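Workshop exercise sheet. Pairs work together: one partner reads the sequence aloud, the other fills in the structure field after running the prediction. Swap roles for the next sheet.
Pair: D.N. / O.F.
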Amino acid sequence: MFVDWWGLSEVSSHGLGYLDSFIDSEVKSRSLRLLLCIILGAKGRSVCLRVPTLPWEMSNLSSYALRMARLSAQIFGEVVRPTDSKSMKVVALFSEQPLAKQKEVYSWYPPHNTYHALMKKLRYFGLYRDEHQDFKEEMRRLKKLRGKVKPKKGEGKRALKKK
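Structure field:
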């Protein structure tokens, strides 16, 4: 037996279509049905309570039903108190995932640091030839041969004057 909040009209115990009419298609899970349906011990029948969603539906309810509706909305991450469409736009904005956590945004560029470390290891093992790095090392070696390298810390011109 399903009981309606407003008219307390009985619907047959097979009337799951009645239940589906007010549950969002996204939230038609078994756990939600169990939460909304109160199982009675007598004759294995159940009483299902319809969750009010509109402001004028809320005003007709008892304080217990109102608290239960608000608790249900809190549990399932919905708006607790009825709001207008302008406020619902804000709710929709905040319910979206932040831009920084969206995969399309944070995986836009390839992982250069990882690639660089891998190429450095491959170069060390002799499996990759980085011509630019080879050129820089050769220039450093030639500078050293000519005596044009930077002095170590504490061996500059100022340190040589004091001696």
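Discussion prompt: The two ends are 103 Å apart (CA to CA). What would you look at next?
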